[in-house]
Amino acid sequence: MDTIKIEQTKKIVIDSVEYIRSSDVSTFYADLADKQATQFTILISIICGIVVFIIGATWWWNYRGAKQQISEEISMNKETLMRLFRQQAKKVNDILHNYEQKHKNDKVELQKSINNQIDKKTKHSQHTLKESFDSFEKSQKEELEKSLKSVEKQIKQDQAELSRIFALHCASTNSHYNAVTWWLAAAKLYKETDNDYFLGIAIRAIEDLLNQIKSSEDNADWDDLIEKVEEVTPDIMRIEKDKIIKKMKELKNLPKTNLPTTQ
Q1: What is the mean pLDDT of residues 110-120?
Q2: Contact 150, 184 (CB under 8 A)
């Protein structure tokens, strides 16, 4: 008997589970949850829209109010200033009128005083204009002098480069004396253009060339070259200068040979 009741209970439970599975109860709750979520989203969107609208309306209202207030303040200040100006102008006109009526004889003096003030201001303006023109002329002159110096420096640099090329050519043809004279010419130009690097190269080149000269030429003017070496050699190259001068003095006392020059 108990076995039959248990079997019946199982059957009822199984039937109930099957009924639940076959029914739309789960679908119903799922749809209900989706609808609630959708409604909640719509509600949040509406609230956000209301907040944004309120903020925008508040800003627009404040902007319009501030703009209107500023316009009103400007208008009021403008009217106040115009009223004060008219009052002051009226006072000035009244004073002038009264002055003219009471002191007709002083009108000429007043005119003279005004003319004097105008003359003073005119002279002052002319003086200021002259100073401005002189300053402009001075600046233009300085700029022109600067440009001329730049051009002169460039010309000297080009001349120094040509002298260096001639010196190298003479050295390549074993015309050492002429090479020395051209290097000295280049060194002078390098010194005038503040080109210390190439000045040092020129001095060292002269020293090397002098060591290659074995006899003095008939037309060699070593005293003049010694004077030029003392003139162009910087203090920092004092040792090289002493060596060059010593070598030139030695060459000055050597037997002279009649060699052609290419300078």
Answers
A1: 77
A2: no
Band the pLDDT of 260: cuts 50, 70, 90.
very low
Q: Within a 10 A sphere around the Cβ of 208, how many other Cβ atoms?
A: 14
Write out the DSSP string of 24-81. Answer: SHHHHHHHHHHHHHHHHHHHHHHHHHHHHHHHHHHHHHHHHHHHHHHHHHHHHHHHHH
What are 216's strand-pairing partners?
A: 256
Q: Which residues contact 209 (CB under 8 A, 6 or more apart)?
A: 171, 176, 179, 180, 183
Beta-bridge partners for 256? 216
Residue 60 CA to residue 75 CA, distance in Å, equals 22
How many helices (H) and strands (E) in the chain? Answer: 7, 2
Average pLDDT over every residue of 120-144: 76
At residue 257, φ and ψ (nearest 5 deg) are -125, 145
Cα separation of 5 and 243, whole Å? Answer: 137
Q: In angstroms, rounded to a whole number, what is the distance separating the alpha carbons of residues 46 and 168?
A: 93
Alpha helices in 173-254 (DSSP H): 176-192, 196-212, 222-232, 238-252
DSSP 242-258: HHHHHHHHHHHTSPEE-
Which 3 state secondary structure label does DSSP give 213?
coil
Question: Is residue 251 within 8 Å of residue 213, measured between CB atoms?
Answer: yes
Residue 245 to residue 263: CA distance in whole angstroms = 22
Does an H or E element contain 216, and which? Answer: strand 216-217
Cα–Cα dist 258/243, whole Å: 26
The predicted model scores a pTM of 0.43
Q: Is the pLDDT of residue 15 over 70?
A: no
